[in-house]
Design brief:
Length: about 300
C-alpha cells in the first residue's frame, strides 16, 4: 500500500508539472546566485536585480589591510574619515538571500519616477560641459539625498504592479550597509580589498586612477561619471553586480553609528582615490546632503 501511495503522489506531481508545461508556465524553483530579474518601477521602465544568495561573510577589513591604509593616510596626511579604524572587524553577516540592483539607479529611471533630474552630469546640469555630446540617461543619478531616496521608494512601492509582483508585502528599499558589503564581496570573503583582488588604478572602476591603491602605476581619471555597467567586462562580479566600486557613492539605509544622525554611504565615486573604493571602506553624510551620491535598490525575499 505504501508503494502504491507513493506512486500516486509521483503521478500527481508529474501531472501538475505536465499541466504547467502545457500552459507555458515553469514549476516554481529557487533562484540561483547572480540570476537576474526585471522589476517595473514606472510605466514601461524596468530595473534589473541580481539574486544575492544565502550565506555568511566576515565584514570589514583584515588587520593587514587596515595597517596599510593607516600607513598610506599617515604619509599623505589624508583626512581621518578614510581611516581603516572605522572599518575594523565588524563581525559576521548572515543572510537567507535577497535581490540587489544590478546597477545604480540611472538618470532616466529617476526621471521616470520623480519627473525631474537633479544630476550634475547632464544637459543643463553644473557639469554639462564634462558630458557634452553624451546621452546621460544611463548614467547613475547623483545629487540625491537619503531623504530624496525615501520619496523615490514611496512612489515605487506605491505601484500596484510592483506590490503584486512582490507578493503584496515585499517592498523595495535601500540596502543596509551589511547587505551592501555582503553583496560586494560576491562570496569571496573579505581577504581582498576589492571583489576582484587587491589593486585599483582606474582600470576596473571609475575613480581617480592617479591615486591608485595596491599597485604603483597610476591610471586614468575621467573626472565625471560613466554609464552604469561600463566596467563590467573589466572586473566581472561573481553575482553580476556592477559599479560597486566607484562611479557614485551609494546610500545605505542605516545610521553610521547610534550616536549620530549620519547615514552610511559605501563604494567610493568617480572622484574617490583608490583606497576609498575598497569593499570595507565606510563613510557618511547627513540624510539631507545630496552631493555626488546615488543608490541602488534592494528587494527582500520576505
Amino acid at each position: 500500500m505504501r508503494r502504491y501511495g507513493i506512486g500516486l503522489t509521483l503521478l500527481a506531481v508529474g501531472c501538475v508539472t505536465a499541466m504547467l508545461a502545457a500552459q507555458g508556465a515553469e514549476p516554481k524553483r529557487d533562484p540561483v546566485a547572480g540570476e537576474e530579474r526585471s522589476i517595473e518601477i514606472a510605466d514601461g521602465v524596468k530595473v534589473l536585480v541580481c539574486y544575492i544568495p544565502a550565506g555568511e561573510c566576515q565584514l570589514g577589513s583584515p588587520a593587514a589591510e587596515r595597517a596599510e591604509v593607516l600607513r598610506l593616510l599617515s604619509e599623505a596626511k589624508e583626512p581621518a574619515w578614510l581611516s581603516g579604524e572605522a572599518e575594523g572587524v565588524r563581525g559576521k553577516y548572515e543572510t537567507k538571500g535577497y535581490w540587489l540592483g544590478k546597477y545604480e539607479v540611472t538618470q532616466d529611471e529617476w526621471v521616470a519616477v520623480m519627473g525631474s533630474n537633479p544630476s550634475y552630469f547632464r544637459v543643463g546640469g553644473g557639469g554639462a560641459k564634462d558630458v557634452a555630446g553624451m546621452k546621460t540617461g544611463n548614467y547613475p543619478v547623483e545629487g540625491v539625498s537619503w531623504e530624496d531616496c525615501q520619496k523615490f521608494l514611496l512612489k515605487v512601492n506605491g505601484r500596484a504592479g510592483l506590490r503584486k509582483s512582490l507578493g503584496g508585502r515585499k517592498l523595495a528599499r535601500l540596502p543596509h550597509e551589511d547587505e551592501w558589503e555582503y553583496g560586494y564581496r560576491g562570496g569571496r570573503g573579505n581577504g581582498r580589498a576589492y571583489y576582484w583582488g587587491d589593486g585599483l588604478n582606474g582600470d576596473k572602476a571609475n575613480h581617480r586612477g592617479d591615486y591608485p591603491y595596491g599597485v604603483a602605476q597610476k591610471g586614468a581619471w575621467l573626472e565625471r561619471t560613466t554609464p552604469v555597467g561600463a566596467y563590467e567586462g573589466k572586473a566581472k562580479h561573481p553575482w553580476g553586480l556592477c559599479d560597486m566600486s566607484g562611479n557614485v557613492w551609494e546610500w545605505c539605509d542605516n545610521l553610521y553609528s547610534s550616536e549620530q544622525t549620519y547615514r552610511t554611504v559605501r563604494g567610493g565615486s568617480w572622484y574617490g582615490i583608490g583606497l576609498s573604493c575598497r569593499g570595507a571602506l565606510r563613510s557618511w553624510y547627513e540624510p539631507s546632503d545630496a552631493n555626488d551620491i546615488g543608490f541602488r535598490l534592494l528587494l527582500p525575499l520576505d
